[in-house]
Structure formats: C-alpha cells, structure tokens
Design goal:
Structural class of chain B: alpha+beta
CATH architecture of the largest domain in chain B: 2-Layer Sandwich
CATH topology of the largest domain in chain B: BirA Bifunctional Protein, domain 2
Number of helices of chain B: 13
Largest sheet of chain B: 7 strands, mixed
Oligomer: heterodimer
Number of helices of chain A: 20
CATH superfamily of the largest domain in chain B: Bira Bifunctional Protein, Domain 2
Distance between the termini of chain A: 90 Å
Number of strands of chain B: 9
Radius of gyration of chain B: 46 Å
Number of domains of chain B: 2
Helix content of chain A: 25-40%
Number of strands of chain A: 43
Shape of chain A: elongated
Distance between the termini of chain B: 81 Å
Order of helices and strands of chain B: HHHHHHEEHEHEEHEEEHEHHH
Radius of gyration of chain A: 42 Å
Strand content of chain A: 25-35%
Chain lengths: ~800, ~375
C-alpha cells in the first residue's frame, strides 16, 4: 500500500527521516518496497478567486481579471483562458513563481500590468487525476478552498511516498492508522488524535429511517448502518484530494472520497448508497438465490451463485457484499439521503465470491485479509462525521447495529518459554514492558495474562506473542548458535550419488547438461514414445498400453497453452533445445537432462513421477586437419549406453509405431523391464521441430541401475592368453547377436573374450550374405593353454556355427 | 712404419704376417713385447681411423664384419693360434683377445656416435609446428542451476542434513492445509497455484515435504528437500512459473531461533564467502512463527548500497522461521516437547547472484551461448 510520509507525520508527530523510518518499518516486519520523493513542481502558487473581469480594448483574446487572494490582497492579471468566470477559484502564480519550464514575472500588456498568471493543471506540472476540473483552461479548484493559501502547502508537497508490503497476517497494517500505531510501538511516542469532524446532528433516530436484517450471521458478523440526509455532492477539499491521489486513489466527489479516505485511514471498506432506492428502507443481508443477477457498478451483469452474500432490499439485490455495489443504488448527483454501510464479512466467503466472479476490488481484498469489529466501528464513526461535514448533511441520531463483537481474546505467555524459543535471557520486566508497549495490557505473577488489542485479529496462541516480543526487541538480539546433535554427513538418495558419475561420462563425450520445463504444450504428449520403466508384459506384449499414456495431465488454469500439460517424456523438451539452438545459429552438439515425467494414475492417487535420463545428440561426422574422423552414430550412442549401464542390457527393435526412425531405434531391456528407448529421430518428428540435422535420442529410467554393489575381489589367471580369429559368412537376415551368442556358448570355459572387429559386404561375398569377423581370446585359469585345447574349442565353435548355416571363411 | 694403403685393416693382418709376429717359430721371446705393442697400437689406430670414415651404422657394421666377423682378419688370426707351439699359444691368445676387446670398444664408441647422430637426424625430421592447433576434446557443460543446487545440497549434507524428496504433484492438504492454511485462508493468496483437480495441484513450494517428513520420521529430524515448484504467475525477467527450491527442516528438543540463525549464517558463509554477513528481519509465513526473511550483505557493493541491491546493501535470500506449533500438531508432534525451524530458498535467485545472471528466463531456455559460459 502507498502511504505519504506527511500523513504519518500528522498522526505520529515527530518522525525519523524517511530513510530511517523505512529501516524502522523493515525491522518491524513491514517491507518498504519503495521510498519515492514527491517534489513540488512549482513554487509561489496560491489559491485565488476571480472577483471581476473586464475586456481589454483592442485585445480580443485576453481579459483583465481581478482576483482576491485572502490576506495577500487583490491582484490583477491578464488571462486568455477560455473558462474564466467570476467566483471561480484557480491557482495564481505570483511574480517570482517558478513553474516547470517557466518563470513568472510582473509584465505589462498593452499598458496593463499583469501581476502574475492564472495557471492550468499542465502548467503546474500536476497530474490530471489530482485536478480533473478545468482541463480546457485554468485549473478549477474546490470553491471552499481557503484563499491566498500556498497550493503546495495545501497538497502537502514536497512529500515522500512509501510503498509498503503488508504481510497477510496483519490486515490492521493496511491502513495509515495501523502503520502509525506500529511506528508508535517502536518509537515509544504516543499517537496524536486523528483529525476530528463534527457533523450536524439530527434528533431523528437512524433506526426509524432504515432497518437491517442479517439472514446469515456466519457470513456477516457485523453490519453497521448510519444515515446522512440532505447531502450535497461536490468536489473534495484539496488537502483530501492530495492525500487520496498520493495513496493511489482518484479523487471523485466528497461522498466517494470520504469513504475511500476513511478506508485508507482506518482500513475499513465502506459502502455508501442511495437510501431512497432501498425499497421499504429495509436492508437484507442474505445469500443469493440460484440464477439471481445483478448489474454491478462496473456495468457488468453478473449471475450469482448460492454461495454469494448479497446486500438486498425486500425486492432486489443492491450489491455483492464486500465486493462491489449495484448500479441500481449508486450515488448520483441527485442523491440526497444516503446510507453508509460498515460491515464485517467473513473473509473466506468474500474470497470464494471474489474468485468465483473473477472480481477483485480494493474492498474485497481488504475483507479477504480480514477486518475487525474495531475497524467496523471506527470506520462507521469517522466516515459518518466526515460525510456530514464535507457534504453538508444532517446525521440522524444513533446507528443500526447488527452483530455483537466478541469479548477480547485472552492469551497466556510464559516468560521461560519465550526465552527458550528465542534463546534469549530476557528479564520478566523486559518482557512485561514489551507486552505493554505492544498494547497487550499484561497482568499475572508468573505467567502473563494478556488481552488482544481490538484491532489485532492475528493472535491465537502463545507463539504469536513471542514473535511480537522478538520483533520489538529486534531479531538482532537473538544469538547465533549451532544446534546440538550427532556429527555425521547427511544421507542422499541413491540416484544423486550415481548421477554425477554418469553425467561426467556424458559431459566428457561432449553433451551439455540442460534443465527444461516439465510444463509443455499438450501436443508434445501425443508423440508416441515408449513409456519406459515398465514391466515387459505391459509394454511390448500389449500394444495398447505400450504407448505413452493418454490423455495426459492438463492444468485447469494454465497461463498459456504452451505450458498447460505435464510432460510424459523428456524427449520433446530436448528436441526443442536442439532445435532452438540450431535456429539461432549456434548448434549444440548434444544435451542431457535428468528429469521427471508425470503419469496420471487417477484422481484418487498422485501421479507417478519416474526419474528419467534423456539425451539428444546430433548425428554428425567431423574431421580434424590431420584427417582423423569422429563420427556420431547410432552405434556410438549404443556404445555410450553399454558403457554407462554396464549391465545385462538387451536391445530389441521396436515393433510398432513410434516417433523414432523405425529402422534405427531400439527398446532397451534390463531383466524383464523395459527401461529405455533410443534411436534416430523419425522424419515426422524432425519436421515438427524443423531440425536441420539428424538427431539421436535416448530416454532411460534410471531406477533399475541404482543398486550400489561393493565390488569384491575375484582371482584372475596369470597364465598367458591365446588369440584366434574367425570369419564367417552368414545371411543378412540373421541378427548379429545370434552369432555372437553361438560363439560364446560353443566356446566353453576357456573362451574369455569375443571381440567383433569386422563386418563386410561386397566383393567375394555372395549377395544376401555378410561376412562377420571375430577375434577370440582363450585362457586357462590353471595352466598355460595347450594348443590342442584351443583347437578343440575352435572346432566346437565352428561346428556350431556351421550347423546354423554360417560358412567359415578362414581361420 | 709405413701406412698401409686403403683397406688397411687387411693390411694389419698383412703387417702381422710381415712382422712375423705369429709366424710359426718366428717368435722371439726377446723384443716380442715391443713388437706386439707396436703392432697392436698400429692396428687400433688404423681401426679408429677407418671408424672415423664410416658415416652410417651400416658402414660401421661392414667394418665390424671385416674385422671381427666370422671371416674377419682378427678371427683369422685367432684361428691360427692353434698353429703356435703350446707354450706360446697361451700368451699370444691372451694378447689377441685383449686386442679384440680394444677393437670392439673402438667400434662400439663409433656406433654410439653414429647412433646419436642418426637419432638427431630423425628428431630433426620429425619436428612439428607447435603452433598448429591441438585436437581438443569437446567437453559439455554443467547447467548453472544444477551446479548451484548441488552446491547448496553439499553444504547441508556436510552439516548432517539428509536429502529427502516429495512429489511435484501434491494434494492441496499437504501444500496448504497441513501448513496451517485451511481452505480460503487469506495467506493462500501468497502462492498463486496451478491446479490439476480440485484437490490435486502443482506444489507451490517444497514445504509440503516438511509435512511428509514429519509424518514418516520421528525427531530428531534434520533434512533438506530440494526440487521443482510451480506458481501460476506471469513470466518476466525475474519471475518464472517453474523454479527450484531447497526446503530445510530441523525438529528436535530444544531447537531455538538462535539455531536457525546459526545454521543459516553458516550456510551463507559457505555458499557466498565468510565476508558476507546476514541479517534477519520479521516476516510472515503461516507455517512458521516467529518468521523471518534472511538477508545477505550485497556482494557487489559490500553493503554500501548499489543498483544490484536496490541501494539497500542487502539481498533477500530466503524465508525462514520456527516451525509453527500448529504444523507440529498437524503432524502428530507435541510442540511442548519438540521445536524446530524451517527455511526455503529459491535456487535460481542464488544462482543469479552467484553468477551475476540478469534474467531468470535464461535457465530453462538452454541457449548454448549461455550454457557454455559455465564449465
């Protein structure tokens, strides 16, 4: 909220400088977001009333104007403003006055002396909101303004404006009085009385002029109505307009301004409406009926729900309680008699209504945060008196009051508990003094009994008092101390221990770590990626469940469609990163992310959030200046995965529709779980992201690879090994893995290693076949290998291969 | 003694023959020594000279073969030793072997010289232009956010905090109710929320992990809960609807506000450096009381006030406070017996301060020009 320093000064009396005050407020828990000096854009400008005007012979444009400026005397000025009229009160810049870009001097026009200048709003450098009248000529000031008064003084300029952030627990701080009260607690200086207004009283009891009936006392805890009769609507005085304007409100008319002013001052939202529009002069506070409608002050026709609390008369709704009044009872220039409502609506109800209607107003925001019986009474009292003073009305005696304030809340405070929680050694006396300064009226011998001040709605238990004491003595008084406890390093989840190893490997291969948003366009969830981290049965066998879950989780209230769904896979996010960088002309070689996917499990269960490792890398061949070649390919990526997850992995072609290249992609199995998918981006996906080069993708559920087994020593053979090569010609229809498996099985215990080193197709190899070459290493763990042993193993391998149709090329 | 013509080594043999040194029966005990000495010296000199003339190891090898090889002159002489009377044979044999060793040494010395020369020539030929570029290994980069997050986690791990986790899609009850914010509580407006269903939402802070932890663990509790949080908030240079937080929670007997100040000040010294000082000012969170905002002296101006810190000299780093007794009760912990403190910090904000990053949007954009600045 915005608060002028001068307003606080009026209530607090002596104040520290604005900068020091901001520090004080901060230490009290009031964050000052901005301290803005407000300069006075002019000097030596006073209020003056036009008392006479005469034409100037030979001058069709200007008039000779006589003005009176109170004790300063009368002046004559030459002016060409179009809105000059006798009786008009306007700003007069005296000789020596400095306006923005202009210095006023005594001048002579056609032999006539002009002793200053009547100014327009723009010439004064003020905003239109502050002085809305007289835009076409000299600024029109309120008729009742004192004459000869310094305009800067009337507007209290220069000034300093604080923008203060008020925490949700202290609605009483949403007012000048509330802040002033808090300042007084800290400075110890008593508050000055508020500016008092005294209206004209009328012996007629208010209760004979208006009746109030509260049907739902749970939603309306208090309703105070006062009546002001025979009002005259006119502009507010300058001092008030200035304050409202500084506080961010537009001055409108005395009645509206008075309610706004009191709202700023004591924090109570008030609503004035035309009493003559209230049928039977009877106000009913009730819930809306189904499908009931009301045109609110903003002109919107609103359909209301049963949860909405209404201010109504026996025939029609007059306003939405605590949110906005109805157009039908709006104050107009014809309004003579008005009723002023000061109420305490339940904050939850107003919050629900405000959200339901999508309508937040200054009033609703304040009701949501909470008002008090104290502010209801103060607001009613002050606004009624002010209205009667400013709008010249009569105030019928008394008020109509529905609802009872509860007795003040009583709380207990144990001094030793205070010192325990704060780790301080405050004496009983110091705690007593603090409670007293905070306005709690402490009593009691060992345990303090305190009474909550009527404006405090936030005190519920002992700790609330402890916090207030801590605020008052200052958080700096609390020492810094480490907690006692065993010395040990904390424990971390297994994935966090493993991830840095995997990441350093991948970063070493040139991939860059990225972090992408889990909120994605819903379209991204329609790309068919394998749903990894599933038991085999639910993926490969049952096609329906194998694809990504659909529909995906969509937000009820997204800020944009691009961020409205929770992702099912990280791969589209990574493709977007690759694509963005490509399009910006600095392509990324590759990226990797460890992140989550989100899978709906129904309304009764929170979604599954598996942690996935995903990577994207450009298919690229790069040569160095010496002719060395480095190629990023399907098999290099496969090699990375094999190196990283050095486990029993099984790779299998994906047998159904998938966003990856059908011939260059594979599902990755660990034991009987589908744990990953990898391969080249398919053409449709490539087009969708407008990729300029091929991209390889992989996504792996890491859960299966987190077991951290302590390695145990295994004895190894110190006898020499013997190597043999073998090459076979096989049909291209049989997968490589079959042949390797045959060799391993037939090789027996002596076969230590099978290394695949050549794959050849072409000359000397019949079409439809392919040559595969392996290097086999044999070793005996107990003795040096005998030639005969190796030969036996080789024969066994060759026979098994030949049995399955392989033709041996050489040995 | 005249020098022999070219190929004089042969001549050495010839000389020997001529000198009759080994001539059968031509051996004179007297003067024999002088004769031999002279002859051996001449043979050595001659070999040394021949050696000097060789220019390659192969030439030297040729020379060695001619002299000491199977068919070499000296070998021939050694073979003829058998012709000598046995009383002379031993002496002559010893002398010849001595000579052989000398000759071998001469050859070896030359070989060493030639080898060195050959190596020098090879090295010269193999030299490279060291200013040509090397083949750098392309190494990726760590994301500055992950780096910051892990740095924060490591500090707390070393202080004995366990890392715990909670789901990002949460129940309203854990995100709000159990944290002392029943339905329609005004403080809920402090967190603009993304909803999935009426009861299911994207957690607006990591604080629900406090609830999950207190419901599953018994005090003493000392944990941090890092992770992604969400706000239904318009995105601009300093606001993001998705961001990382690190939550902290300590519950034990006798935990005081002083412990909060102690632990968090230590954290700041570790994370930002010991010269940075902290200040705690009152604040409000429904789930802590007393609540505080921790501020750290600005690293750019050292607390003098600059544009980086809004001319206050201080930077807001995190919200914190003593766990509200009602929150403890909600989790079945008796607040008279146990007390605690909790804190929550935004990781992006800390990364922005640490790396002087001006815009929060940069983190999730992943522009390589941005990422490559952080090794």
């Amino acid at each position: 909220m915005k608060i002028p320093y001068s307003w606080l000064e009026e209530i607090n009396g002596r104040l520290p400088s604005p900068g020091e005050l901001a520090d004080l407020l901060l230490s009290a828990g009031l964050e000052v977001e901005e301290t803005l000096p407000l300069a006075c854009p002019f000097s030596k400008v006073v209020t003056a009333r036009i008392i006479a005007m005469e034409t100037i012979p030979g001058d069709l444009h200007n008039l000779l104007v006589r003005v009176e400026a109170g004790s300063l005397g009368n002046f004559q000025v030459v002016s060409g403003a179009p809105n000059l009229a006798v009786g008009l009160v306007a700003p007069l810049a005296l000789p020596g006055s400095i306006l923005p870009g202009l210095v006023i001097e005594r001048r002579t026009f056609n032999g006539l002396e002009s002793e200053g200048m009547l100014c327009s709003r723009a010439e004064l450098g003020l905003e239109k909101e502050l002085l809305p009248l007289g835009e076409e000529g000299v600024a029109v000031l309120p008729e009742e303004s004192p004459l000869g008064a310094d305009l800067g003084g009337l507007l209290t300029l220069p000034d300093t404006l604080f923008t203060i952030k008020v925490t949700a627990n202290r609605p009483d701080w949403n007012s000048v009085l509330g802040i002033a009260r808090e300042i007084a607690v800290f400075t110890g200086e008593p508050l000055r009385p508020l500016l008092e207004f005294h209206g004209r009283e009328d012996p007629t009891p208010a209760s004979t002029l208006v009746a109030v009936e509260v049907e739902d006392p749970l939603l309306c805890l208090r309703y105070l109505a006062t009546v002001i009769c025979d009002t005259r609507i006119q502009p507010s005085p300058l001092w008030m307009a200035g304050r409202l304007w500084k506080s961010g409100m537009r001055p409108i008319s005395n009645v509206v301004d008075a309610t706004n002013y009191v709202m700023l001052e004591v924090g109570q939202p008030l609503h004035a409406f035309d009493l003559d529009q209230v049928t039977e002069r009877r106000i009913v506070v009730r819930r809306a009926r189904p499908e009931e409608t009301l045109v609110t002050l903003d002109g919107a026709n609103r359909t209301l729900a049963g949860s909405v609390l209404l201010i109504a008369d026996p025939q029609k709704p007059l306003g939405i309680a605590g949110v906005m009044g109805g157009l039908n009872s709006e104050m107009t220039s014809a309004t003579r008699n008005l009723v002023l409502e000061s109420a305490f609506f339940q904050n939850a109800s107003i919050r629900r209504t405000s959200r339901l209607l999508g309508l937040k107003t200054e009033a609703s925001e304040r009701f949501v945060r909470g008002v008090s019986h104290h502010s209801v009474e103060e607001g009613s009292r002050r606004a009624t008196a002010m209205l009667s003073t400013l709008a010249g009305g009569r105030v019928p005696a008394g008020r109509v009051d529905c609802g009872q304030p509860p007795p003040p809340k009583r709380l207990r405070l144990r001094p030793e508990r205070t010192n325990q929680v704060l780790a301080t050694d405050l004496s009983r006396e110091e705690i007593y003094t603090s409670l007293d300064r905070l306005g709690f009226s402490p009593t009691g011998a060992t345990v303090f009994e305190v009474e909550s001040p009527p404006w405090r709605q936030d005190l519920h238990e002992e700790v609330d008092l402890i916090e207030d004491i801590a605020r008052l003595i200052g958080y700096d008084r609390v020492p810094r101390r480490m907690p006692a406890g065993p010395l040990r390093r904390g424990q971390e989840p297994p994935w966090r221990r493993k991830w840095p190893e995997w990441r350093s490997f991948l970063l070493g291969q040139g991939l860059t770590e990225v972090v992408t948003a889990p909120l994605v366009p819903p379209e991204w969830n329609t790309f068919t990626f394998l749903k990894v981290d599933q038991p085999l049965a639910s993926t490969i066998d049952a096609r329906g469940q194998a694809l990504a879950d659909r529909p995906s989780m969509v937000l009820r209230n997204p800020i944009s469609p691009e961020r409205s769904a929770l992702r099912l896979s990280l791969l589209p996010s990574l493709l977007q990163v690759v694509a963005t960088n490509q399009h910006r002309g600095h392509p990324l070689f590759g990226c990797v992310e460890l992140g989550k996917a989100y899978r709906w499990r129904g309304e009764e269960e929170l979604p599954d959030e598996p942690r996935l490792l995903a990577l994207a890398v450009a298919v690229r061949t790069e040569a160095d200046w010496q002719g060395g070649i480095r190629e990023m390919s399907f098999f290099r990526l496969k090699g990375w995965l094999e190196t990283l997850f050095n486990e029993e992995l099984r790779f299998q072609t994906i047998p159904y529709e998938h966003a990856l290249h059908p011939g260059r992609s594979a599902a990755l199995f660990h034991k009987d779980r589908l744990v990953g998918v990898f391969g080249e981006v398919g053409p449709a996906l490539g087009k969708r992201f407008a990729l300029k080069e091929g991209v390889l993708l992989a996504e792996i559920a890491i859960e299966s690879f987190l077991a951290q087994a302590m390695p145990l020593f295994q004895s190894f053979s110190r006898f020499p090994a013997a190597d043999r090569d073998i090459a076979l010609v096989v049909s291209t229809d049989t997968p490589y893995s079959q042949w390797e498996q045959v060799i391993r099985e037939a090789g027996g215990p002596l076969l230590e290693e099978v290394a695949f080193f050549d794959r050849y197709q072409g000359e000397n190899i019949p079409p439809g076949t392919i040559s595969l070459a392996f290097s086999l290493r044999f070793r005996n763990s107990e003795r040096t290998l005998a030639e005969a042993e190796i030969n036996r193993a080789m024969v066994s391998i060759e026979c098994s291969l030949a049995d399955l149709g392989a033709v041996l090329r050489s040995r | 003694m005249s020098k022999h013509p070219a190929g004089g080594y042969l001549a050495a043999g010839g000389y020997l023959a001529a000198g009759g040194y080994l001539a059968a029966g031509g051996y004179h005990p007297a003067g024999q020594k002088e004769l031999h000495s002279d002859w051996a010296i001449i043979a050595q000199d001659q070999l040394a000279e021949e050696c000097r003339k060789t220019e390659s190891l192969s030439q030297l090898e040729e020379l060695r073969v001619r002299t000491l090889g199977k068919k070499g002159q000296l070998t021939a002489l050694l073979r003829r030793l058998g012709d000598l009377p046995s009383e002379q044979r031993r002496d002559a044999g010893a002398r010849l072997n001595h000579l052989k060793q000398s000759l071998e040494a001469i050859l070896a010395a030359r070989a060493e010289v030639l080898e060195e020369a050959a190596i020098s020539r090879r090295l010269l030929a193999e030299r490279v232009d060291v200013t040509l570029p090397g083949f750098q290994v392309r190494v990726g980069h760590r994301h500055p956010l992950c780096r910051t997050l892990e740095g924060i986690e490591d500090i707390f791990l070393s202080l004995g905090f366990d890392i715990v986790e909670g789901p990002e899609v949460e129940w309203d009850s854990n995100n709000f109710e159990a944290l002392n914010m029943p339905a329609e509580h005004p403080a809920r407006d402090m967190w603009d929320t993304y909803y999935i269903t009426e009861r299911m939402l994207l957690r607006t802070h990591t604080s629900p992990v406090q609830i999950r932890t207190m419901k599953t663990r018994k005090p003493p509790i000392r944990v941090i809960a890092p992770g992604i949080t969400y706000r239904h908030e318009a995105i601009d240079a300093t606001h993001m609807d998705i961001f990382y937080q690190v939550e902290g929670l300590v519950v034990d007997r006798g935990i005081s506000f002083a412990n909060l100040k102690g632990v968090l000040s230590l954290f700041v010294a570790e994370a930002f450096g010991p010269e940075r000082i902290t200040k705690f000012v009152p604040s409000y969170f429904p789930f802590t009381e007393p609540s505080a905002e921790m501020m750290v002296s600005c690293g750019l101006c050292g607390g003098e006030g600059c544009s980086g810190c809004g001319h206050s000299g201080w930077l807001e780093i995190m919200g914190c406070g003593q766990v509200h007794p009602q929150v403890l009760r909600n989790c079945g912990i008796d607040p008279e017996d146990f007390t605690g403190f909790a804190f929550g910090m935004g990781v992006e904000r800390i990364a922005m301060l640490r790396f002087n990053i001006p815009e929060i949007r940069l983190f999730l954009e992943n522009d390589s020009q941005f990422l490559k600045q952080f090794p």
